[in-house]
Amino acid sequence: MGMGLFRSWVLALLVLALMMVIAVVFINQYITMPRHVKPTEYQLTYFSLPSNVSIFMVGPQSLINNLTGLGLPSSAVRLISPVELSSIPNGSVIIIDWNYVNRTLHMNYDELAKALENPMGRNDLIIIISEDPSEVMMLEESVAVAWGNYYHSKVIGFPVFPVNSSSYIVGFGDAGLMIAVIPINQVERLRLLMGIWYNMAYNTSLSMPTHVKLNTVINTTNQDPYYYMAVNYGKSLINNQYGWLFWTGPQTIITHYNGLQSTYQFDYCIIVANSMSTGVTPEVPVEYLGFMDYIPGFSGGSFAYYRAGINMTTAWNDYYGVLNGINSYMGYVGGTGIQPGTITCTPGILSYIGISVPLPGGVTLNFQFQPTASSTSTTDRNFITDFQSTPTVSLNNIVWWFASLNQWTCLPQSTSANAWYPVGFEVDSGERALVQGANNLNTAVSPVYWERGAVCYGSYENAFNSVVYFVLEYQPGTPWTVKQLSINYPYGSTYNVIYGTNKCP
Q1: Under 8 Å between Cβ of 156 and 470
Q2: Helices 13-26 and 187-202: crossing angle, nearest 10°?
Q3: I need a labelling partner for 278 at 20 to 30 A (CA). Which of 87, 157, 370, 438 fits?
Q4: Which domain holds residue 158?
Q5: Burial (0-12, 13-18, 19+ Cβ within 10 Å), 110
Q6: Could you tell me if residue 292 is inside a domain?
Q7: 55-58 and 93-97: which strand pairing?
Q8: Burial of 28 by CB count in 10 Å (0-12 exposed, 13-18 middle, 19+ buried)?
Q9: How do residues 90-140 score in pLDDT, each as one tens digit?
Q10: Regarding beta strands 93-97 and 155-160, do their DSSP bridges make them parallel or antiparallel, or are they unpaired?
Q11: What is the pTM of this model?
Q12: CA distances from 404 to 255, 380, 416 (A)
């Protein structure tokens, strides 16, 4: 058998105003424009909703003024009750104060999920404000349950982020299901997702091209694979009929220190194929995919390390430890489907990392990741080489080491201001073991996705990190309900920071 595996949201207006000033000053520094490809729209970090978008809030009047930092003019926000959510216009923004809804209106998680069913079907943008970190995961599941019940999906999933503060739970679902957890003080990440949602909800040209047929191979360069898939294929290919897409959405963390600035981007997803093996323990094929990009605002850095991985062990431990609600597991069959493979440096030969993503339905997407010398120049090209550590058993770690090297000398290449250093990684031979059988509820946590990097700039170090895994549930023919699951939260945190250090030469 193959082994299958967030009250301090009330921010001071002065802080929000300062963030907006920073945005104006630095906006031109982190809109990256990849060469040779149409720029991905999510890179427009600071976004204000157009006037044609309706904004509704379930919460107290006092909350409205605190939303201006999100690019939401207070005059555009309408207060409504939960029962009105089913009749608002398509493509609306819905903001819910969970503390108010739960304690004042006495709504529980299942009632919240029921109220969100139609909004999820209309592809509305859901933003839930949670004061208590212990409630974040159940609020995530409420959004996933709403999506699953609307689409009558037998599979739902949502990512688990490290959380220790008041947070926004953000979700929308059309081309797959996007859910993210964003700390209250990281407004730029929320506004980024608002822009992504708007592009996907209002630009009809983003639907699957009519000329794209099954059994084709599509090649792309320097693209976020999951955003690309959601935009270009959508529910016509990877939502229910052929499979399901669950993703974090592209996340961007911008840091400033002593006149220095950098951008770290990441995105993770799971693709579940709508197929099932026969046998004593049915299995469902899954793909694990990760993407990251480092964009320095200054030159002269050197990568101390640039690493990514998928940890298969935690998913098994949550199952084996008989944690509340976890009754199945995920993994991979081992030995195959791990990308990128090992790439070695040969002087004079330009090598790039790439991944090949087979989608349910016969479409294969090939992604190539090319680091650039700058956002405006194509000279002085460098490349990323990769070394992959392949585990000996299917419940171990898979780790990739990336290095930015000069193509002629195979020595470390200095970073360039406004260049991008993207990488992608995947395991396309994953399996979801339905331990409880195909006719029963199966709940599992996925392997842990993690990325870490550090770049030295003289006596300064720019360190970045992210860690996420997913809860994935299978349930045939029965309405979804919100369950209180007991899981091991991912160890570590998500950050991008620059600081003085003696670790760098």
Answers
A1: no
A2: 70
A3: 157
A4: 13-500
A5: middle
A6: yes
A7: parallel
A8: exposed
A9: 999 999 999 999 999 999 999 999 999 999 999 899 999 999 999 999 999
A10: unpaired
A11: 0.86
A12: 22, 12, 11
